[in-house]
Write a structure and sequence with these properties.
Shape of chain B: elongated
CATH architecture of the largest domain in chain B: Roll
Order of helices and strands of chain A: HHEHEHEHEHEEHHHHHEEEHEEHHEE
CATH superfamily of the largest domain in chain B: Ubiquitin Conjugating Enzyme
Strand order of the largest sheet of chain B: 1-2-3-4
Largest sheet of chain A: 8 strands, mixed
Strand order of the largest sheet of chain A: 3-2-1-4-5-6-7-8
Number of strands of chain B: 6
Number of strands of chain A: 13
CATH topology of the largest domain in chain B: Ubiquitin Conjugating Enzyme
Number of domains of chain A: 3
Shape of chain A: globular
Largest sheet of chain B: 4 strands, antiparallel
Helix content of chain A: 25-40%
CATH superfamily of the largest domain in chain A: NAD(P)-binding Rossmann-like Domain
Number of helices of chain B: 7
Order of helices and strands of chain B: HHHHEEEEHHHEE
Strand content of chain A: 15-25%
CATH class of the largest domain in chain B: Alpha Beta
CATH class of the largest domain in chain A: Alpha Beta
Oligomer: heterodimer
Distance between the termini of chain A: 66 Å
Largest interface: A-B, 83 and 75 residues
CATH topology of the largest domain in chain A: Rossmann fold
């Protein structure tokens, strides 16, 4: 296929000319396009409504190496907005079809598809990319990726952040006519965990209302989903991706609604309630994705200053956008550096706890600390059964409890006097005695 | 690969006037420089081969439940067990043995499943003991407001345990999940009491057999 003449004309206008709004150190040159096309590796997570737009936007913005990961297969209901898919693609993996279609349409772009869950890839998979783009619909998946990129962060001996360990993420999200785009530089701008409160809590109905006094079609659907399924289909695990299961829920919900003189139970409402789906609007995806792709371009080339750090978009009446600079949570359990302490490499867990208790910085905050490291409970003050199980650790060397890594790591400290988890970054003062 | 000289030049210039550049732009600048750096490529190649021990990643839910568990304040009528060992706090069992009220002397086991997004999402709690109770159905679903519509991230495992204990002290016939039990409690409290005794002694109530708990 011939490369379209002038395909990179607009990109070159950004990369080859100086300007007032360029980022620090931006020097217009042709090598920047080279960098985008050959050296910069971008990962797109999700090949759904937003993912299709992101892949198209990135490919047309000059990114030449794109990976895409998605665990879903194409459903007929996706076709109205997930424009890379055709009717004969139904049932095929989204990631693969999207990758193939982009490569057919944009010459020279290499798109690698990964048809799997994000948890199936190891940490090194995510490490190889310069930028990670998120086109996801769940908070859970965002939270998982967030914990991966935050685990990359390393600090200099003087406590300063090692900038080379930052993995920038650009996140897009849409819900009907509303959307957001945000840039996350873990360790510098707020991560998902810092601003978890931005996400509204799920709407849940009281179980007794569902059982006794249903008043809306959603009540009837939730009753069948949460209570009746367990009674009628004992031992069967409900799978929201199974059409048979969904149809059963729908049919039973209709029966229940009739019984309580409630109207309005439809199959799509059933799907909406059970899977928590909000109708997707194609133009919202397009706008949010365009903002995200532009931010990726800025991060990679510095052709303009980056967004700081969260843009919301509302398209219900006209086009409204607002950009807010959210602040990092200095005590974030995911991205904060942790309070540095130095202990001797022969130090036991008990001695480490004593050091913490005697440290002026923690004095008023700690009385009976519990200590854990990467999911292992080193010492738990309560309940008694865990205290007993973890007590023998007190006499063991902290270095070995922390996996024998002489560069140390982060301990999580819990104490009744603390509001949240206290992160303590331990470093060991002497080299291990090898004799 | 080609090392771009204008960029290195720019790098030096930017360092000269570093105070003028805010932190975020500075960071993205570093990231861009990293993209260009040959050294970085080599470093990554070296790392990908060796790689230290795999890091066990913790979900926010795990971190928070660690705090909750380390601060548990269990009454003498309540105990906790960790069927999956001391390092899996995401699923555990709470056993309640009420020492007063209708259910005095019974032993009731609840399973707790902590979601990865805890405390943004509430724990999933089921009653593993078949019980005749207006607010617990025969499949173990529990109607407790703080488990669903009134859950707030400031609540904790302790709050839920208090709530469960309270359900045994003061069953609430107005928000029923077991309709028959609720009606009996509302209309004939003495009959309800007899039914509860019968159920926890291992008898039949309303055609359902209940396990012997005392």
């Amino acid at each position: 296929m011939e490369e379209l003449q002038g395909r990179w004309h607009d990109l070159d206008r950004l990369l080859l000319r100086p300007g007032n709004l360029v980022g620090p150190g931006f020097e217009p040159c042709a090598e920047l396009r080279d960098l985008l096309q050959n050296d910069c590796k971008v990962l797109v997570i999700g090949a759904g409504g937003l993912g299709c737009e992101l892949l198209k936007d990135l490919a047309l913005s000059g990114f030449g190496n794109i990976d895409v990961i998605d665990m879903d297969t194409i459903d007929v209901s996706n076709l109205n907005r997930q424009f890379l898919f055709r009717i004969h693609d139904v049932g095929k993996p989204k990631a693969q079809v999207a990758a193939d279609r982009i490569m057919q349409r944009v010459k020279g772009v290499m798109v690698t598809a990964h048809f799997c869950r994000i948890e199936e890839k190891d940490v090194d998979f995510y490490r190889q990319f310069q930028i990670i783009m998120l086109g996801l619909d769940s908070l859970e998946a965002r939270s998982y990726i967030n914990s991966v990129v935050c685990s990359f962060l390393e600090y200099e001996p003087d406590g300063g952040l090692d900038y080379s360990t930052i993995k920038p993420m650009v996140d897009g999200g849409t819900e009907g006519f509303k959307g957001h785009a945000r840039v996350i530089l873990p360790g510098v701008t707020p991560c998902f965990q810092c601003t978890l409160w931005l996400f509204p809590p799920q709407i849940t109905f009281p179980l007794c209302t569902l059982a006794e006094t249903p008043r809306s079609p959603a009540h009837c659907i939730e009753y069948v989903h949460l209570i009746q399924w367990g009674q009628d289909r004992v031992g069967e695990k409900f799978d929201s991706d199974s059409p048979e299961h969904m149809k059963w829920i729908f049919e039973q919900a209709v029966k229940r609604a009739t019984q309580f003189c409630i109207s309005g139970v439809t199959y799509s409402l059933t799907q909406g309630v059970v899977k928590n789906i909000i109708p997707a609007i194609a133009s919202t995806n397009a706008i949010v994705s365009a903002v995200c792709a532009l931010e990726a371009l800025k991060i990679a080339t510095m052709c303009s200053k980056g967004m700081d750090n969260y843009m919301m978009y509302v398209g219900t009446q006209g086009v409204y956008t607002h950009t807010v600079s959210y602040e990092k949570d200095p005590n974030c359990i995911m991205c904060s550096p942790g309070v540095p302490i130095e202990v001797d490499c022969s130090c036991t867990l008990q001695e480490c706890i004593d050091t913490l208790l005697n440290d002026q910085r923690f004095k008023a905050k700690l009385s009976r600390p519990s200590v854990s490291f990467q999911g292992t409970n080193l010492y738990m003050q309560a309940p008694p059964i865990l205290e007993e199980l973890t007590r023998p650790n007190l006499r063991l060397s902290l270095l070995s409890l922390m996996g024998g890594n002489p560069s140390g790591g982060v301990l999580n400290i819990n104490d009744k006097k603390l509001h949240g988890v206290l992160r303590v970054r331990v470093s060991f003062s002497k080299e291990m005695d090898t004799t | 690969m080609v090392l771009v000289s204008p960029l290195l030049l720019a790098c030096i210039r930017a360092f000269l006037d570093w105070t003028q550049v805010d932190l975020i732009q500075r960071t993205t600048f570093f990231i861009m420089i990293k993209l260009f750096s040959v050294k970085q490529k080599q470093k990554e190649a070296a790392e990908s081969g060796s790689g230290g021990p795999p890091i066990k990643k913790q979900s926010p839910g795990e971190l928070r439940v660690q705090k909750d568990i380390s601060e548990l304040n269990l009454a003498k009528t309540t105990s906790i067990a960790f069927p999956h060992g001391k390092d899996n706090l995401l699923s555990f069992e709470i056993t309640i043995q009420p020492d007063e009220g209708y259910y005095q002397g019974g032993t009731f086991v609840f399973s707790f499943q902590i979601p990865n997004l805890y405390p943004h999402e509430a724990p999933k709690v089921k009653c593993r003991t078949k019980v005749y109770h207006p607010n617990i159905d025969l499949d173990g679903n529990v109607c407790l407001n703080i488990l669903r519509e009134d859950w707030k991230p400031v609540l904790s495992i302790n709050s839920i345990i208090y709530g469960l204990q309270y359900l045994f002290l003061d069953p609430n016939p107005d928000d029923p999940l077991n309709h028959e039990a609720a009606q009996v409690l509302r209309d004939h409290p003495w009959q309800f009491e007899a039914n509860v005794r019968k159920s926890i002694s291992g008898g039949y109530v309303g055609g359902h057999h209940f396990p012997r708990l005392i």
